[in-house]
Amino acid sequence: MAAMAAPNPTGGAGEGLPMPSRNPLPLSASQEAQIRDIYHQRVRSACAPEIKAFADCALNRTFTVSFVCSDQLRAMNGCMKAHATPQNHDAAREEWFAKRLERQRERERKAVKKSQQEDFIREWWGLPEKDAETRRKEEEKMRMAERVGGYAARDRKRWEEEQAAAAAAAAAKR
């Protein structure tokens, strides 16, 4: 499995988690949106000069933009089309996976800060302490890793359960 792990695209030392595979489990919609944002940002940064040239041409123009700036528009669209490739999308996905640990550390830092602020407000206003169960649940949630692969549907039949039921039925027939 280590042979299939992708190199760290950020160029740093390989502290990050390896990419699970070239086609990992389906991600949630928000995770896919984050990957799409990285992908679009990479394409825009690759075509920054063409985009800037078109923006400079289109400045203070309204109706005449399509006529006057057609060369810059064609150059910008051609550049974006050339860089909007599946390979670039895969690179954005790998970059997203490489930054999983960084996002987890950021979430933990924010959760600790939030907890400290809540404690301060409780102390300042003389409010009662949180009950131990609520605090334990919040700490447990904070320690959870980012979920990759989404959640299974509650009503989905599970293969293991079907196999166990079939084995039980076969044993009952004997």
How does this model look, in words?
The protein is mainly alpha-helical and 174 residues long. Among the domains are: 27-98, no CATH class; 101-144. It is built from eight helices and no strands. It has helices at residues 29-46, 48-58, 65-68, 70-83, 86-98, 100-125, 132-143, 159-173. Residues 1-14 have low confidence and may be disordered. Keywords: Chaperone, Disulfide bond, Membrane, Mitochondrion, Mitochondrion inner membrane. One of its GO terms (cellular component) is mitochondrial inner membrane.
Give, in order, the helices and strands: HHHHHHHH
Work out the radius of gyration: 25 Å
Oligomer: single chain
Give the overall shape: flat
Mean pLDDT across the residues is: 83
Note the main sheet.
none
Would you count the extended β strands for me? 0
User: What proportion of the residues form beta strands (DSSP E)?
Assistant: under 5%
Q: Helix proportion of residues, in percent?
A: 55-70%
Low-confidence blocks of residues: 1-14
Structural class: mainly alpha
* End-to-end gap: 42 Å
Number of helices: 8
Protein name: COX assembly mitochondrial protein
Pfam families: Cmc1 (PF08583)
Function: Required for mitochondrial cytochrome c oxidase (COX) assembly and respiration.
Family: Belongs to the CMC family.
Overview features:
single chain, 174 residues, mainly alpha, 8 helices, 65% helix
